[in-house]
Amino acid sequence: MLYRLLRYLNSPMFAFKSEIHSVRHALTILGERETRRWIRLVTLVSAGMQKSTDLVLSALVRARFCELLSPKVPRSTSDPFLLGLMSMMDAILELPMAKVLEVIPLDQQTKKVLLGCDGPARPIYQLMLAQEAGDWEHAKTYAAQLRVSESEAGELWWEAMQWARQVGNEGGT
Predict the structure, then answer these.
(1) Relative to the CA of 51, which of 123, 144, 147, 169 has its CA 20 to 30 Å away?
(2) 88, 125 in Cβ contact below 8 A?
(3) How does DSSP assign the chain, residue by residue?
(4) Which residues contact 173 (CB under 8 A, 6 or more apart)?
(5) CB–CB of 121/113 below 8 Å?
(6) How do residues 18-58 score in pLDDT, each as one tens digit?
């Protein structure tokens, strides 16, 4: 897993001036939060290698889309990137979400949203699902709640898809 993390970070996608050669170096360059995020991402990609690549790609798109929308919600303890990433773990692991959440340590706000309850990140989650399903009426409603135009939501979704494809291609090389 650490090898994959370092390979991702040293890919042309990041264009760091010097090669990142250790987790300590990654922590110095990226900071703890970003390093943890990439470790989660590599873990998901590794877990999903035996599952459909479509599931992994969807999880990556969802994660990036939620992250791109994160400035639209009040600061909370939940990590929007992790929310999107975890939203596919039930399908990837072939377990009910409640079972997945029993064994994965997550903040309570994220768990509540993943189980269908309200929370600060719920509008992001709902917009993500509507955007993915092509449910434009609901997407319009949720985008308005976040003060995002329909076109901006579409652009962010497109950006998330491009990012996920790039990351997915890096993982497969």
Answers:
(1) 123
(2) no
(3) -HHHHHHHHTSTTT--SS---SHHHHHHHH-HHHHHHHHHHHHHHHHGGGS-HHHHHHHHHHHHHHHHHGGGS---SS-HHHHHHHTTHHHHHTS-HHHHHHHS---HHHHHHHTT---TTHHHHHHHHHHHHT-HHHHHHHHHHTT--HHHHHHHHHHHHHHHHHHHHHHH-
(4) none
(5) yes
(6) 777 665 666 666 665 665 666 666 666 555 555 557 888 89
pLDDT in tens, 84-115: 988 988 887 788 999 888 877 778 888 999 99
pTM above 0.90, yes or no: no
What are 44's two structure tokens? 């998901």
Q: Give per-residue burial for 124-134: e unless 16+ CB within 10 Å, then b.
A: bbbbbebbbee
- Rounded to 10°, the helix 122-133/53-69 angle is 130
Sequence letter at residue 150: E
Q: Which pair of tokens denotes residue 64?
A: 């990036």
